[in-house]
Amino acid sequence: MQHKTGLVHLGYIVWDYFYSNIVTLVKVASHTFTKADTVEYPEQMPYLAPRFRGRIVLTRDPTGEERCVACNLCASACPTDCISLQKTEDESGRWSAEYFRINFSRCVFCGLCEEACPTYAIQLTQDFELAEYDRQNLVYEKQHLLIDGPGKHPDYNFYEMCGKAVSGRAKGAGCQEAQPVNIKSLLP
Amino acid sequence: MDPLVNSLLNVVLILLSVVFGAALLTWLERRLLGIWQDRYGPNRVGPFGTLQIVADMIKLLMKQDWVPPFADRLIFIVAPAFAMFVVVAAFAVIPMAPGVGVVDLNIGLLFFLAMTSLGVYAVMFGAYASDNKYAMLGGLRAAAQMVSYEVFMGLSLMGVVMLAGTFNLRELVLAQVDGWFIGPQIIGFFIFFMAGIAESHRTPFDLPEAEHELTAGFHTEYSGMKFAMFFIGEYVSVLMSAAMITVLFFGGWLGPDWLPPIAWFLLKTITLVLLMILIRGSLPRPRYDQLMAFGWKFMLPLSLLNLIITGALILI
Fold first, then answer.
1. Concatenated DSSP letters for A32-86?
2. Which position has the higher pLDDT, A79 or A6?
3. pLDDT tier at A109, thresholds 50, 70, 90
4. Phi (first) and psi of residue B223, to 5 degrees
5. CB A31 to CB B37 under 8 A?
6. Residue B27 and residue B49: Cα distance in Å, rounded?
7. Chain-wide mean pLDDT for chain B?
8. Which residues of B16-53 are buried (b: 16+ CB within 10 A; e: fewer)?
9. φ, ψ dihedrals at B220, nearest 5°
């Protein structure tokens, strides 16, 4: 508005004030009839995206064996250093975790451990209700983390894919795996 | 009934219902603001969350009643009681229905104006005694704001007084039998409504306790029941402004016969309270100097204009 003086200008100002304020009042009052956005959480679950990152679990492969090979990549990827584990090896040559510990009071649920995991063992789930009265109860040991199923990749079996010989299955016996080539032989 | 028993009953019932009503208003306001902001507000404790008041009361009673070591102890303690006292005292003159009302002063309107003017002292005392810079700024603003709105608040009521020819509130209501004063005094109503909001320190005139810039303004240092007294005092003064507007401009208890007079009075008051809450939920707070300019340069001339027009109409 141009700078003017006198009654006309005053009239403009008054009109501006009152008109905008009354529009505001009416608009706010009209919200009496709109639906609330609130999700009443304990009774009503909020929508969780398919890739929601919640409580961390350790999965098993389709044969029921632990997928985790204790490679330590998750622990080194973890920005808060909340994962700690120790490798052990059984008589068949398979690697596994002797202990596997996640401190959920430090975990930030970034999902980098899941990205780092070469065997799809460590996965983040939809569960976010982790509250505890005692802080120590947030430290989850391996038996708390292990689940019975395969999680997000139901058909994946690391030892079938990796080409490593373990007892009971020699080199070349895995799926999509050719027999090892005899490099001393001249035959094609 | 014995007149003494009757008046005692009146006093106790009105006092209780005013204080309880103000407490209920804290819940109602939160619910309504919630609804207008697409939320629910407190809806957990009891039916529709009404027992939230009880929960709040328990919480405030259990809180440490802390007086800062640097505060002026006596004034610090007196201020919230004073804030509560003046608004409840102002309620004494409001006639709610035939036979319902504490006193029937022939200068009821002046008593009301005097009591509401005293209300600012509670704020200033609290602010001064707190010895806190935010409280001090809040008290300063309260004083300046009071000076600017008290003038046109009184002037806006003069039109009503001229029409009715009395300061007695009960007679003021009875003078509206032929038509409510909202018609001839629409400007006066508008000005008094604004002043009423300013009087109870509510948005858009909540400069003394502007949360964003002054934490809590004059009651920054208060906690527990002392804070609650200020808080309830604010809601009592909301009720009081609404009741006063009902009496002065909407014919008090007058209304068709199919509802008892007290119901008409309550209905009108509650509608006005809802309007005040709606205004709180919608309008932003003006800047400090804007409020002063608005009061002195716009509202005061407007109320004088209203006075002149009313006088002219009476003479014609």
1. GGSPP----TTTSPPP--TT---SEEE-B-TTS-B------HHHHH-TT--EEEE
2. A79
3. very high
4. -145, 175
5. yes
6. 8
7. 85
8. eebbebbbbbbbbbbbbbbbbeeebbbbeeeeebeebb
9. -55, -40
What is the CB neighbour count within 10 angstroms for residue B298? 16
A25 interfaces chain B, CB cutoff of 8 Å: yes
pTM metric for this prediction = 0.77
Q: How far is CA A11 from CA B46, B187, B242, B278, B314, in A?
A: 50, 16, 29, 26, 27
Identify whether the C-beta of residue A122 lies closer than 8 Å to the C-beta of residue A56.
Answer: yes
Mean pLDDT to the nearest integer, B157-161: 86
Tell me what pLDDT residue B96 has. 82
Q: What percent of chain B has pLDDT over 70?
A: 99
Residue with tokens 């709105």: B149
Q: Cα separation of B263 and B271, whole Å?
A: 12
Q: Return the residue of B nearest to A36 by Cα.
A: B38
Give dist(CA B87, CA B18) in Å, integer: 10
Arithmetic mean of pLDDT, B239-267: 86
With residues binned 3-state (H G I as helix, E B as strand, rest as coil), the percentages for chain A, rounded to 5, are 25, 15, 60
Cβ contacts from A onto B, under 8 A: 36
Name the pairing type of β-strands A95-103 and A139-140. antiparallel
Model confidence at B179, in pLDDT bands (50, 70, 90)? confident
Q: How far is B301 from B31, CA to CA, in rounded Å?
A: 38
Q: What is the ipTM of this complex?
A: 0.73
The SS3 assignment for B57 reads helix
Residue entry with tokens 């009953």: B9
Kindly list the distances between the CA atom of residue B120 and the CA atoms of A103, B123, B143, B218, in Å, as whole numbers in the listed order: 56, 5, 7, 11
Which residues have CB under 8 Å from A23's CB, separation 6+?
none
Nearest in space to B265 (alpha carbons), one of B286, B247, B241: B247
For the sheet with A95-103, list strands across it. A83-89, A95-103, A139-140
**SS3 category, B245:** helix
Q: Confirm if B296 and B184 have CB atoms less than 8 A apart.
A: no
Residues of B near A (CB-CB distance < 8 A)? Answer: 34-40, 278-279, 281-283, 298
- Domains of chain A (ranges; CATH) run 56-161 (3.30.70.3270)
B282, A28: Cβ pair inside 8 Å?
A: yes
The Cβ of residue A115 has, within 10 Å, a number of other Cβ atoms equal to 12
Tokens 């009934």, residue located: B1
CA-CA distance, A86 to A57, in Å (whole number)?
17
